[in-house]
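Researcher: Please translate sequence to structure tokens.
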Amino acid sequence: MKAILLCGGVGSRLRPLTDRMPKPLVPIAGRPLLDYQLTHLAAHGFTDVYMNLYFLPEKIKAFVGDGSRWGVTPHFQVESTPRGTAGALRLFAEELDEPFLVLYSDVINEINLSQLFEAHKLYRPFATVVVRRTDHPEDSDLVTIDRHERIRALYLKPHKTLPQETLYGNVGVFVFDPEILHHIPKNLPADIFQNIFPKLVLTHALRAFVSDAFIQDVGTIERLQKVEERMQK
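Model: Translation complete:
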């Protein structure tokens, strides 16, 4: 199975840690974030891992090597300019001929990825989006869902006000049908939630996968410390 790990960010909110270190290599309890992610992917059968790189790409390549320590085969593409979370998918378009997993590189999670993938194959939506009840809705992209867990509306950050509905936050883990590549501009940067989903939610089936597993983005120093405390227990 194929997974894309989005590694193109510069980690500006994690400075000074990321002044000379790419965000995927930031240590958590003595292990690089990327080590946790590759271990988790391999445990659920994702053997081909595609990574877009931008900031200090050679350091990530050197750490991953041939992928044999995790039992995965890495595939790298280095961006000359950042393409965004959606634009980066087009770098691997020729390889993506079946449903594929996408993860943000600054999210550490214990989601049952096998169960997620099976749910996507069972219901066959255009996209399956992992969501959860979030404790920081103010800086999260949010969705509302119906009783069949179909996504009905999007609420994109930043928020001036929030609707009085049950809201779920995007956690940065998706399964996509390869058809999504036709909805991503070829030569322009684009974000999955900000630029692609607002159009697709009107015309295509987007399904939520509600998870109560441990999921935490480590995009800020405070959130990184929160994850480190958990990993050290």
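Researcher: Any highlights?
Model: Residues 2-231 form a domain with the Spore Coat Polysaccharide Biosynthesis Protein SpsA; Chain A fold (CATH 3.90.550.10).
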